[in-house]
Write a structure and sequence with these properties.
830 residues, alpha+beta, 14-stranded mixed beta sheet, seven-stranded mixed beta sheet, 21 helices, 29% helix, elongated
Length: 830
Amino acid sequence: MLTHTQRHKDSLGRYKIIKEKHENQEHFLRPEDGRLAPLTVQGIENTVGYGNVLTGGRTWAFKGESGRHITIIMRLLCWVHSFRYKDGSMEKRDMSEDGSAMMLFLVWLPCCLILTLLLFIPQSLEGQFRNQGLYDPILYRDWRYPKVSRNRYEGKNEDECEGEERGQHGPRDLEARAISRPIATTRSNSSGTKNDNDGILARHFGPRFLCFVTGIHEQNGVEFKTCRVSDWIRDNGEHAYNGFVFLSYTRHQFCVDSEGEIYDPKRWTDLSGEQRENLVPIAKRDRQALLKKGVEAARSANRVAFWIDFECIRDIDTQPEGTAENSANSKSDDVYRICDIVRAAYSMVIFVGPSLGSKIQGTPETYSQAITIEWLQAYGDRLWTLPEILLCPSERRIKLHFYGKAGPPEELAKRDFPARAVWKDADRVRELVDHYESTIDLSPLELVSIALECLAERNTQKFREGDIAYALMGLLRRRPMTNDKDSSFEAFARLSVANVSDALLERLICMQPLHRDAPWYEIKDDFGARLWDIEPRCQVAGIVDDQAVTLDGAVGASIRWDRMDQVAFFKRPTTARTFAKVALRTMPGYLLAGIGMVGFVGSLLSYDGIGAELGALGAGMQGLLAVGIIFLVPGVIVFLLAPYMIFELYRGEFWSTQAMFIGIEGVPDDLGWVERHLFGLNQGRLKWSVAGSTLSQHKLSTYDECEALPPKESTPALKFANEAKGSNYTNVEEKPFTLIDIYTRTATVYYAVRPPTALIVCGQEGGMQRAVLYSYDWRRGTFSREAVVRVKTIVLERMFRVDRFRFALNRKMWEKHPESPGSTSETRLE
């Protein structure tokens, strides 16, 4: 029959064929050999107090509680000494109260006999020692090209790129292949600036086009002429140009589309034909009103020109000047250079009015003192107006014009505008204003973090998918080239790569989102940290696609999910401990030798008539008997003390342990259950983490110490379903998982959709390391973030470096039989 298969290539170049019936199952990279293997998870079926979400929806094998893989000697000792010590501590119990002393007396001698027999068998009582005590490595390798590489020599060669441009391999953004390409030569662009050709958007010293108030040419009933600034200076002399006024407005209130754009079937899709006809005269009136206000503003400021977007942004330099209705939706990169234009302006004028929706309905709001707040709030709610407010000149006040109001405009200082407009984020905007007025100095990361929070809350009529990142880049020094094909995340990744010193994305991935479906630009951390609190430990080396980037330089470890073995531990090597180990290991030998020699001599002396004959050999027999007694007496002593000696050797705190991460689905009620699986004895060595996750708790103990508490009970932060057509992942919901760090002997509870199979340290904050927990999406060869936890810094000394890997903020919901760069799809006849 016909079977669909996919192929995965591991770190050693080996291929594994995944058949259709197994392609929805979670897989992981085995740390022993790097092979791709199906994921089997141990866990607790019912977890009370954590949402009871363990009943289904798994894409991995669930085996329930793990068996106890402890040596028989350790099991026997645990049982015997359970009569002496309290479970979960090193405190002795009062054996006189419950008859424990009698039980201990009865089982002691049989225990000694069993231990003597078991000590004949060579075996380690100190657990499994692996990787020289280090964590399990992550055996991964990325075999593919990134879409955009930080260094151009890591990208595809020019011939391949040309082939892609011809359509042989699909479209590719050549200009953004190298974000920081060093080119020695420079060239002048049309506005007099120099472009390094390194993928960075060139800065403009000023606008290319302006509306000059001449009193000669009448356009739309207003006396002005739109022309290139260089042409104006050439014709009138440089002394005739004294700057311009920047006119700001929002298209939520004014329609500036041309008649052709209004009737474009791809635009205004929510309007009927009649409403489109009504919108044409509204657009003409709005254009004329804005242009008249621009002329008035320029004359009031005694300037020769004003700037307004629908007149002064041109797709090409050769577009006819003075056109009656220029395109209001230019695709020119000048849209993303408005930040340079507003910086160069003499002053700024803002024109606000009734909403466009009310105009279309024929019920526009009329001017009143009460309505001005709504108009200003609507103006400030737009994405591109915020950078204009922040970057406009501070030495002159902003002039506010209200539609329908007679008399002079209202004048406001930039610093007073957020409060006057009653914006909901006025306090954060004020911080940005203070920064650009140089009254306070925000660090680059503080600037990005606060600005992105403010921009993300605003609405916009999208020119491109990455408009939020493109609006943000106007506030930064280095601005990558814009790209129509960029998603919002890709645009931000380009911005992060271009501003490498700020490591924007590297810090962002270390943050724990408030909820799983939070967009990338929601810079809010569930731990309460800010972007500048995190110091990255990795670097973005390239951009993969609209969801993933390539990270390099991180350290990490694999997480084991299928079982819990007894792990190795180390205690301080003292003379007494070394002597005790030797005595215990050799005890069966010299005990049996002593018994044999004493028994042999005794058996000879027991026969009648032989005693006299042995008189001549008495010295030899006496010597043999003495040696036998020398072996027998210490052997008997060690034999009777064996349960006590072995217990004392392996009880108490450890000097160190084998480093390993163990994963459990669910939350154990008692960590002693886990400790018995790992060390054989439960003496309270394993503790809950103090601040490992947002569920961790702690308190001040009696002795003024920080005492860890069990994690707080909680329901999942989010349950959600993916309703994408054809998706194999439906009813996706978060589940509680427990991460056991054997090296630091701590347990941390967190929520995730899938069991993360890798822990990678990507940053540090607050004296701890930010570790991102990843599941492995084998279809794309990508690690997808499931949760973020905090681990102790000492874990770094036991971790391996991770090879350059692909990282995604969230797992992509695949449709049936995806074609992906991480796997090869093929159909076989079986």
